[in-house]
Amino acid sequence: MFELRGKDSKTLKIVLDGAAGSGKTFTALRLAHALGSKVFVIDSERGSSRLYFGEQVDGQTWNFPSYILPTFSVDCYTEAIQQAVQHGADVIIIDGISQAWNGANGVLELVDMLGKQKSADGREKGTFQAWGAGGKAHNKLIDSILTAPCHVLCTMRTKADYVMDQDERGKMKIRRVGVKPVQRDDVEFEFDIILRMQDGIGTVTKSRCRHLATDSQWPHPGQEFADVLKKWISGGKESAAAEFEQVTQGPPVQESDAREWTSEEMRAKISELVSSGRVRREDILEWRIRHDIPADMKLTEDQTYELASAMMRKAEGGTAEDVPF
Q1: Which of 11, 22, 25, 297 has a CA-to-CA distance to 158 between 20 and 30 Å?
Q2: What is the C-alpha separation between 118 and 124, in angstroms, rounded?
Q3: SS3 breakdown of the chain: % helix, strand, coil, rounded to 5?
Q4: 143-186 tens-digit pLDDT
Q5: Is 249 left (phi over 0), alpha (psi -120 to 50) or beta?
Q6: pLDDT tens track for 237-279
Q7: Which of 243, 242, 149, 228 is nearest to 193 (CA)?
Q8: 272-300 pLDDT per residue, tens
């Protein structure tokens, strides 16, 4: 039955991404101690978090238990999350989750290994077939983060992103278009807040919190930033009622409208559909496999439009295949 109520005991799932030395680990620790008193750290960065053990910051001493992952398999991550929960963690920091994607025994290695296995006819199974198992492994990690009954802050590395463009003479050129996280391309859909770090300054690149504006900048995010988030999760009744009104009475989004959206608006719509449960992550993976687009490949603007249109059709009771591409 539909209910006019906010989410019970809302917990935050936050990403801090950025290049090496941008301030991800320190900021994650600072925010974690502002959000809760029992902070646990899962470390895949060779113990970098332990450099801050015992530090006095914001009137607190950072005495946090940490666990250095011996390998970057999904099972290793999920077991560490379970242990932290069992020990009563208020906040878990996973520093970081890029290694679960491209590190030793991570998802990409799993896909590569499975793709090289021989099928009954002696041929290699191939990468696309292997992505079925790879996608399930990655979903297991994301599910363990999202269902943890505490706040979870994940750090992710970033790398330069490039596209091929034609210049004024018609020649193809490589052009840098910013940075992207080292993780599955659609992982951003799962999190409440994404904070991009550079030189200790955090820029909000995604926010489900109506008190926290996208593109707002926060020098050395700490207690003030955490207070905004705590205000949001502790007073959700009014906003929940407004969201219910919008879902039940607002006009349905037409496919023709989507073509007028920017890439960021289309990705935000996909994120909304996933977070509301109207679309599953498996639906997105199946769409990628059906269109021969690997899960680690960044979507073009046209592909993003096609995916958004397909997922909106599916959310309205149709199937992704109904969308004419």
Answers
A1: 11
A2: 4
A3: 40, 20, 35
A4: 999 999 999 999 999 987 776 777 778 888 776 656 788 998 88
A5: alpha
A6: 444 444 433 333 333 444 444 445 676 677 777 877 887 777 8
A7: 228
A8: 788 777 788 778 877 877 777 776 677 77
CA distances (Å), 164 to each of 159, 167, 263, in order?
Answer: 17, 10, 17
Q: Tell me the pLDDT tens digit for each residue of 7-34.
A: 555 899 999 999 889 999 999 999 999 9
CB 87 within 8 A of CB 67: no
Read off the amino acid at residue 11: T
Give the chain's length. Answer: 325
> DSSP H helical segments within 10-126, as ranges?
24-35, 74-86, 98-102, 107-115
14 beta partners: 153, 193
Listed in sequence order, the DSSP H helices in 235-300 are 237-249, 255-258, 263-275, 281-290
- How far is residue 163's CA from residue 3's CA, in Å, rounded to a whole number? 46
| Residue bearing tokens 């769409």 | 287
- Give dist(CA 254, CA 260) in Å, integer: 11
**DSSP alpha helices (H): ranges in the chain?**
24-35, 74-86, 98-102, 107-115, 127-146, 223-234, 237-249, 255-258, 263-275, 281-290, 301-315
Q: Name the DSSP letter for residue 317.
A: T
Q: Tell me the two tokens of residue 284.
A: 């997105």
Average pLDDT score over residue span 51-72: 96
The verdict on whether omega for the bond into residue 96 sits within 30 degrees of 0, i.e. cis, is yes
Count the alpha carbons within 13 Å of 53 in the hemisphere toward its beta carbon: 13
| pLDDT value at residue 6 | 63
- 46 contact partners, CB below 8 Å, separation of at least 6: 68
DSSP-assigned beta bridge partners for residue 95: 43, 155
What are all long-range contacts of 206-212, with beta carbons under 8 Å and residues at least 24 apart?
Answer: 206/268, 206/271, 208/275, 210/239
Distance CA 316, CA 300 (A): 24
Burial 146-184 (b: 16+ CB within 10 A, else e): eebebbbbbbbbbeeeeeeeeeeeeeeeeeeeebbbbbb
Residue with token string 């926060």: 218
Taking the CB of residue 194, how many other CB atoms lie within 10 A of it? 21
